[in-house]
Amino acid sequence: MISLVEKVYSATSEEQQEEHGQQLQEALSEFLEEFVHHMEEEEKVLSLKKTLILERHSFAFVSQVFTPLLNENFETRELENMNEVVIRQHSLFREKVGRFKFEFEIILI
Predict the structure, then answer these.
(1) What is the three-class DSSP state of 85?
(2) Three-class SS string for 8-40?
(3) How many CA atoms lie within 13 A of 43 on its CB side?
(4) Any residues with CB less than 8 A from the CB of 23 and at least 6 apart, and which?
């Protein structure tokens, strides 16, 4: 990029200056397009990390509040059965999301 700027300013003719200016403009456009795309991806990752941190804190709170209530109102076997159902449903959900994510990534490529 810097060498293109130098070429624009050191051009010996107006024609050379326009040619190097066009090359500089194209290189700058490519850079900005890639940079903006990279920044968007970085924002998505940061947003996801923030969401996961909030979910962890929420889970700790929910666990502290609801575990005693669940233990008071359900037998151990009932809780184990509910846990198995939740894990099974979560696994199915993750499979569906994984397929969707894979298909979405293929579309993006």
Answers:
(1) helix
(2) HHHCCCHHHHHHHHHHHHHHHHHHHHHHHHHHH
(3) 6
(4) 4, 7
pLDDT digits (tens, 9 = 90+) for 42-54: 887 777 777 767 6
DSSP string, 26-84: HHHHHHHHHHHHHHHHHHHHHHHHHHHHHHHHHHHHHHHHHHHHHHHHS-HHHHHHHHH
The structure tokens listed for 63 are: 């666990």
The residue extents of the domains of the chain are 1-67, 74-109
How confident is the model at residue 19, as a pLDDT? 92
Q: Which two tokens stand for residue 60?
A: 């700790």
Contact 4/23 with Cβ under 8 angstroms?
yes
Is residue 21 within 8 A of residue 37, CB to CB? The reply is no
